[in-house]
Every structure is written in C-alpha cells, then in structure tokens.
Specification:
single chain; 281 residues; alpha/beta; 2-enoyl-CoA Hydratase, Chain A, domain 1; eight-stranded mixed sheet; four-stranded mixed sheet; 10 helices; fatty acid metabolism; transit peptide; ClpP/crotonase-like_dom_sf; Enoyl-CoA delta isomerase 1, mitochondrial
C-alpha cells in the first residue's frame, strides 16, 4: 500500500504518541502505533451515505490497515453529529444502467467481506442513527457501543423502502440477535431506538455520547489483551460459514440484485422514497 503520512499526536497528559494518518475525501484514519489501534471516522456530509466512491475508499482504508503490521484493531465512528451512516446511497440504485448496479453491488459485497472477515479487532462506536447499510457496518464489527440517546436508532429497515435485505445481511443479523427477532425486525423494516437495540442484543452497550470513544478504547484494550492468533482463529471459526456462503454465490447475488433493482416497480418505490426525503428537508 502507499506510504502513510507521518504525524505526531499529543494526548492530554501523555507523551507524544507516534501516529500515522491518511485521509481520503470521505474517511479519516489515524493509527496510533503505540497501541496498535486505528481510529476511522466517516466524514461524508450530510449523512455518510454509502456511495460507490465511499465504499471504494472504505475498502482501500481497511486494506491498508489490514496490511500494516503496526495495526491490530480499528474503532469505526462518524465525524458527523447525530448520524453514524444512513446506509446505501439510493441515488446509486435509481435510474442508472445495469453495469453501474453491478459495480455498486460488488463494492457493497466487498466491504462486508473485508469487515466481517477482518483479522483486526473491530469496534463500532455508533454515535448517531444507523439504518440499513449503516447497521450492516455496525453488525460486521466484533463489538458495538452506541450513544445512549433514544433519538438515535439502528436496524435493517430495507422493507420500508420496498426492497429486501440480501441473504448475507440476514445471516449475520440472525447470528447477532437470533432468528425470531431478526425475522420480525426484517419483515417490518424496524428501526430500533438505542435502548431497544440494547435489549434485543443488536448493540452490546450504551454509554453517554461524550464517553463513547473512551469506552471504545477501553473495550479495544480488553480484546487486544488476548493473543491475536487465538482470537483470529476463533473469529474465523464463528464467521466462516456465513462469509463462505456469499463467496460461493457472489455472482448469483449480483445478478439477483441487478434484476431486482431494475424492476420498474422497485424503481418507482425508490423514486417515491427519494421524493419523501426531499420534502423532509
């Protein structure tokens, strides 16, 4: 990977920590070499929507970290107040050609395969609402901490848009919350306020917003106290079947997405949803 810019960061009351930073247009990454922990912040206003450009940058950032021996874990959060990520960018799925839909969907698959299968410890510090694809990113991490604010919600709400969460979204969701909760939540396209998300096991912990990153760092330290190889092999054992299922059916899944999203009825649903969002503004 390209070399990173070298920088030094002063933490309050601590000596200078060597820190390597690289920033794309939409994602800021800082790696603290002394702890081996990277901080990844989404910064794509207004709502960190997962456009093709965003997904590409996200993949490249993860790959750089994964290939860097100094990095053992990454905390993923948002630089934009009140929103973690609004999910997949609807404009990428509306009124485009078949080639574009295929390229976009491959990028969605890629980010999930990288994040869910990562050797690093991944902690989501969810500091705002996290619907659909935003929820997917949080679910892909090893641990989820959410800001203790009932106005923030999280869930796979695809059904509300007239679209269907793919089988691999569903498989991972079932692994986290169990079959019955996943079934009900997916059918209704539910968005769960933070306290309810905790009760359902969708997030592991709620903390006051101002303590979110401090808590994420403490959890990270706890996970990194274990030998990497034991944790990585255990993670692979737990997640391999779900990852392998997408890898085996990747092309089929892309074709299904293209056929589904190209239907006029689905395009109409998406256009209506986009109109509703414009009116809300």
């Amino acid at each position: 990977p390209p070399s990173w810019d070298r920088a030094y960061r002063q933490s309050p009351g601590l000596p200078l920590a060597p820190c390597r930073a690289f920033s794309n247009n939409k994602i800021q990454v800082d790696l603290d070499e002394s702890s081996g922990v990277a901080m990844m912040k989404f910064k794509s206003p207004p709502v960190n929507s997962l456009s093709l450009d965003f997904l590409t940058e996200f993949s490249i950032s993860l790959e750089k970290l994964e290939n860097d021996r100094a990095c053992r874990g990454v905390i993923i959060t948002s630089a934009i107040p009140k929103i973690f990520s609004s999910g997949l960018d609807i404009t990428e799925m509306c009124g485009k050609n078949v080639e574009h839909y295929g390229e976009f969907w491959r990028a969605v698959q890629e980010i999930w395969l990288r994040l869910y299968g990562s050797n690093m410890v991944t902690v989501a510090a969810v500091n705002g609402s996290s619907p659909a694809g935003g929820c997917l990113i949080a679910l892909s991490c090893d641990y989820r901490i959410m800001a203790e604010n009932p106005k923030f919600n999280i869930g796979l709400n695809e059904a509300q848009l007239g679209i269907v969460a793919p089988f691999w979204f569903k498989d991972m969701f079932v692994n986290v919350v169990g079959h019955r909760i996943a079934e009900r939540s997916l059918q209704l396209g539910s968005l769960h306020p933070a306290p309810e998300a905790l009760k359902l096991g969708l997030v592991d912990e709620l903390v006051p917003e101002e303590k979110l990153l401090e808590k994420a760092s403490a959890i990270m330290a706890q996970w990194l106290a274990l030998p990497d190889h034991a944790r990585q092999l255990t993670k692979s054992m737990m997640r391999k079947a779900v990852l392998d299922r997408l890898v085996a059916h990747r092309e089929e899944d892309i074709k299904y997405f293209i056929n589904f999203i190209s239907k006029e009825s689905i395009q109409k649903s998406l256009r209506m949803y986009m109109e509703m969002l414009k009116k809300r503004k």
